[in-house]
Amino acid sequence: MSNVAPSPMSARPGGPLTGTAHVPGDKSISHRALILGAMSVGRTRITGLLEGQDVLDTARAMRAMGARIERLNPGEWIVDGVGVGGFGEPEGVIDCGNSGTGVRLIMGAVATTPITVTFTGDASLSRRPMRRITDPLALFGAEIIAREGGLLPVTIRGAQDAVPVRYQTPVASAQIKSAVLLAGLNAPGQTVVIEAEPTRDHTERMLTGFGATITTEITPEGRVITLTGQPELLGQNVAVPRDPSSAAFPVAAALIVPGSEVRVPGISRNPTRDGLFVTLQEMGADLTWENPRDEGGEPVADLIVRHSTLHGVEVPAERAASMIDEFPILSVVAAMAQGKTVMNGVAELRVKESDRIDAMARGLRDNGVSVDETPDSMTVHGRGVIPGGGAPAATHLDHRIAMSFLVAGLAAQAPVRVDDGGAIATSFPDFVRLMRNLGADLGPDA
Ligand SMILES: O=C(O)C1=C[C@@H](OP(=O)(O)O)[C@@H](O)[C@H](O)C1
Ligand SMILES: C=C(OP(=O)(O)O)C(=O)O
């Protein structure tokens, strides 16, 4: 993506947003469905797969290591797996593009199979920390060579005789937890991950669905997750629910554009992902959930959201992991609320596709909103208005920064511009069309 010419975009204030927003499949679950499908025996059928670039890069990686993967229809894919321990050595470098989830989970998946794999990524991914993954993978017996600072490219020589690991994650991260669990699949005995704060649990849920023995115990240390190694995973049918992190954008837009009412069907209500909705409700958001159901081991419901008068809130640090990707868009909603919104315990935002605290603070300030930051917090001083009209916000190859500023423009007093919307295709390729269908005036800069 870094070699492609930037695509400047802008959004302009306009009338209410109305209609139905069919947001794409969940990104986290889509990566995991492809990886676990590839690590299973037999056929996995996936419906609702997110066809964003991040997930397509994971599919390509799984193919390069021997899985047969085919797209039958939009969102409908089949994976014929190679079984636990069955990955073949890829001939080329595995390029995970912009995707932290892709590269970190696949590193875990290969670390206990005796093959050598070199991973790379785009300019954004090449700045992100990888030692948090390679350190625990070395405990299994994998050999690792990385660039200075533990950065990509990283080469992993998977362990020949892997040993199981007991690992306490040093930061709240589902990617670290998942990398260790995926490595544990091909280690004999029990691999244990302990996390002080709960993080998204899709790996645990899906491993159970594919036939692994995995338990989660709540203890004073936190969540203790125990996986029994070397199971035979069997191909499954996976129905991917719609992504709450993508839903956040039309939901936020409807809340801040007067007169709006939008329906967002079929989104995951997994409690490890619902921090944004809890926070919006505390701010006074009019959110109605209908038709709760279970789809493929994940709770799902339809959401109706109406324009609301909002007030600032304090978001507790303990909630950060359950809404970690939603802080950029929350900061836009917070600007349209009355009063101060304080987001605590968000240091991890500094090591995402961009430093999201810095990127949001700068872009909001340029568009007339007052923001304070500390190393691990961000405070937006909401005045119920975004003046807009500033310099194009720098997006640093970060899809969520681009979409957040475009949503801001829909409720601002003057257009809001971004320097490059290209990265939106990593997680929400249909974003512009979907938002325009609701009545939003946004798109490439003329
Ligand atoms: O496991 C996952 O699918 C993800 C975990 C989160 O990252 P961390 O584990 O680094 O917090 C999140 O930011 C990312 O978008 C997806
Ligand atoms: C942080 C994100 O993704 P990843 O870590 O997979 O790049 C995200 O989608 O907001």
TrEMBL record:
PROSITE patterns: EPSP_SYNTHASE_1, EPSP_SYNTHASE_2. Pfam families: EPSP_synthase. It catalyses: 3-phosphoshikimate + phosphoenolpyruvate = 5-O-(1-carboxyvinyl)-3-phosphoshikimate + phosphate. The lineage of its organism: Bacteria, Pseudomonadati, Pseudomonadota, Alphaproteobacteria, Rhodobacterales. One of its GO terms (biological process) is amino acid biosynthetic process. GO terms for cellular component: cytoplasm. Residues 1-24 are annotated as: Disordered. NCBIfam families: aroA (TIGR01356). It comes from Paracoccus jeotgali. SUPFAM superfamilies: EPT/RTPC-like. Its main location: cytoplasm. Its EC number is 2.5.1.19. Catalyzes the transfer of the enolpyruvyl moiety of phosphoenolpyruvate (PEP) to the 5-hydroxyl of shikimate-3-phosphate (S3P) to produce enolpyruvyl shikimate-3-phosphate and inorganic phosphate. Gene3D superfamilies: Enolpyruvate transferase domain. This is 3-phosphoshikimate 1-carboxyvinyltransferase. Residues 13-433 form the Enolpyruvate transferase domain. GO terms for molecular function: 3-phosphoshikimate 1-carboxyvinyltransferase activity. Belongs to the EPSP synthase family. 3-phosphoshikimate binds at residues 27-28, 32, 173, 175, 325, 352. It is an enzyme of class 2 (transferase).
